[in-house]
C-alpha cells in the first residue's frame, strides 16, 4: 500500500537547519510529515560569516516562510540527547520528540581554539561562530589582527577584513597557504593578499599564546558536531563524522540518515566528501529524500556527486575559481579577478536560491 504525506504512520525528524538539514527537511517533506529542530528562527548563511565580521549587516533568512508551504514543523530548541532504542530526541527545553526516521545534520564548528562566544578567555580570540563579536571588536579602533589558518576560510577572512577595515592584517598558517589549490591558484592568492597589505606567514603551527596581535581569528579547521551521536552509540569514522553507506544511512543505525558536515558522506567518483556548503546541499537533498522514501516504501537511491570547482572570494573585487577534477584535486585552470569575484557571489546566492526552490 502506498503511504502518503498525510498519513500519521511515520515522521521524519531532522536535527539542524543549516544547508544540509534545511535541504533535507524540505525534500523529505515532499513525501512525509517532517519536524525540524534548531534553536534559531533563522537559516544562517554560514559561508558569509567572514563578511559579517567585516561589516555585512545580515546573513540570516527567517525559517518560517521557507517551511510554511511544505508544512514542516519547526521546534526552536537544541537537541541534547538521542535515544536510538526508543527513537526519541530530547531537547534543552525538556521536550521529547519521537521519530521514525532521523536525519542528523548538526553541522560543525571551528576546531582548535578554546573560545567562548565573546572572544575567548582573554577576549582576543574569535572564530567564524563569533563573527558578530569580532565585528564589534573591529569597530573599536584600528589594531593588528592575526588570522590563523591558510585554508579557504582563513584566506577569505583575511582578505575581506583587510579590504573593508583599516586593521593591519596578518595571515598565519602551518605549511603553505591554500594547500588544496594549484600552484597557479596559490600564486594568485599570494598576489592578492600582498596587494591588500596582508602579511603572510607560512611555517610551523601556532597557538593563540604565540600571537601578540590585538585580535586573533582562529580558522584552523572544522570539527563535526557529533557529541549527541557519539553518546547514542552511533558509529563515527576516524574523521569524527557519522559513518554512512552510499544511501547516507548510518551503518550502525539504519533508521538514522546523516547530512552536511556531520556526515562522512562519500561517492565512488569523488571519494570522501569534505565539509562544505557545496557538499551539504546535495547530500541534504539525498538524505532527506532517502529518509522519507525509506519510511513510505519508496526507492532509496545512492548519492551521486563529483566536484567541479573551488570558488573563493578575495575581498569584494577579486576572487579565484579553481577548476578541480571530480575527486577535488586541482587542475591548472583558474579564473581570477573581478569575474571570479562575481562568480563567487553568484555561487553563494545560488545556495539560498536552491533552498527557496526546494521550499516551493
Ligand atoms: C567563514 C566560512 C566560509 C565558508 N565558505 C565556504 C564556501 O565558500 N564554500 C563551501 O562549500 N563551504 C564553505 N564553508 C563551510 C560551510 O559553511 C559548511 O560546510 C556548511 O555550513 C555545512 O553545512 P551543515 O548544514 O552541515 O552545517 P551548518 O551550516 O553549520 O548548520 C548546522 C545547524 O545545526 C544547528 N545546530 C547545532 N547544534 C544543534 C543542536 N544541538 N540542536 C539543534 N540544532 C543544532 C545550528 O544552529 C545550525 O543551524 C565556510 C565556512 C565558514 C565558517
From TrEMBL:
Its cofactor is FAD. Pfam families: Pyr_redox_2. Keywords: FAD, Flavoprotein, Oxidoreductase. The keyword Oxidoreductase applies. Residues 11-264 form the FAD/NAD(P)-binding domain. The keyword Oxidoreductase applies. InterPro entries: FAD/NAD-binding_dom, NADH-Q_oxidoreductase. PANTHER family: 64 KDA MITOCHONDRIAL NADH DEHYDROGENASE (EUROFUNG) (PTHR42913:SF3), APOPTOSIS-INDUCING FACTOR 1 (PTHR42913). Belongs to the NADH dehydrogenase family. This is FAD-dependent oxidoreductase.
Amino acid at each position: 500500500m502506498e503511504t502518503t504525506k498525510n498519513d500519521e504512520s511515520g515522521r521524519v525528524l531532522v536535527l539542524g537547519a543549516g544547508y544540509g538539514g534545511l535541504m533535507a527537511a524540505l525534500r523529505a517533506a515532499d513525501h512525509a510529515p517532517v519536524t525540524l529542530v534548531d534553536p534559531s528562527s533563522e537559516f544562517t548563511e554560514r559561508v558569509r560569516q567572514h563578511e559579517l565580521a567585516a561589516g555585512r549587516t545580515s546573513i540570516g533568512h527567517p525559517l518560517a516562510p521557507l517551511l510554511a508551504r511544505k508544512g514542516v514543523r519547526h521546534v526552536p530548541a537544541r537537541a541534547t540527547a538521542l535515544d536510538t532504542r526508543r527513537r526519541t530526541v530530547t531537547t534543552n527545553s525538556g521536550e521529547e520528540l519521537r521519530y521514525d526516521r532521523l536525519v542528523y545534520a548538526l553541522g560543525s564548528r571551528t576546531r582548535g581554539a578554546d573560545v567562548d562566544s565573546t572572544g575567548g578567555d582573554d577576549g582576543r580570540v574569535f572564530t567564524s561562530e563569533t563573527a558578530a563579536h569580532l565585528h564589534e571588536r573591529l569597530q573599536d579602533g584600528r589594531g593588528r589582527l592575526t588570522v590563523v589558518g591558510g585554508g579557504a576560510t582563513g584566506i577569505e577572512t583575511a582578505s575581506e577584513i583587510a579590504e573593508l577595515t583599516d586593521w593591519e592584517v596578518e595571515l598565519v598558517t602551518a605549511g603553505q597557504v591554500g594547500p588544496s589549490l594549484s600552484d597557479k591558484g596559490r600564486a594568485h592568492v599570494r598576489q592578492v593578499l600582498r596587494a591588500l597589505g596582508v602579511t603572510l606567514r607560512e611555517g610551523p603551527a601556532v597557538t593563540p599564546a604565540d600571537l601578540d596581535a590585538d585580535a586573533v581569528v582562529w580558522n584552523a579547521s572544522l570539527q563535526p558536531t557529533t557529541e549527541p551521536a557519539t553518546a547514542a552509540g552511533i558509529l563515527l569514522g576516524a574523521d569524527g563524522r557519522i559513518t554512512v553507506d552510499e544511501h547516507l544511512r548510518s551503518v550502525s543505525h539504519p533508521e538514522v540518515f546523516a547530512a552536511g558536515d556531520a556526515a562522512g558522506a562519500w561517492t565512488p567518483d569523488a571519494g570522501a566528501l569534505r565539509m562544505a556548503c557545496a557538499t551539504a546541499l546535495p547530500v541534504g537533498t539525498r538524505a532527506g529524500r532517502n529518509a522519507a522514501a525509506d519510511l513510505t516504501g519508496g526507492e532509496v537511491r545512492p548519492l551521486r556527486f563529483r566536484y567541479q570547482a573551488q570558488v573563493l572570494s578575495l575581498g569584494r573585487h577579486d576572487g579565484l575559481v579553481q577548476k578541480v577534477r571530480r575527486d577535488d584535486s586541482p587542475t591548472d585552470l583558474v579564473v581570477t579577478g573581478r569575474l571570479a569575484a562575481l562568480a563567487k557571489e553568484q555561487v553563494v546566492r545560488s545556495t539560498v536560491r536552491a533552498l527557496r526552490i526546494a521550499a516551493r
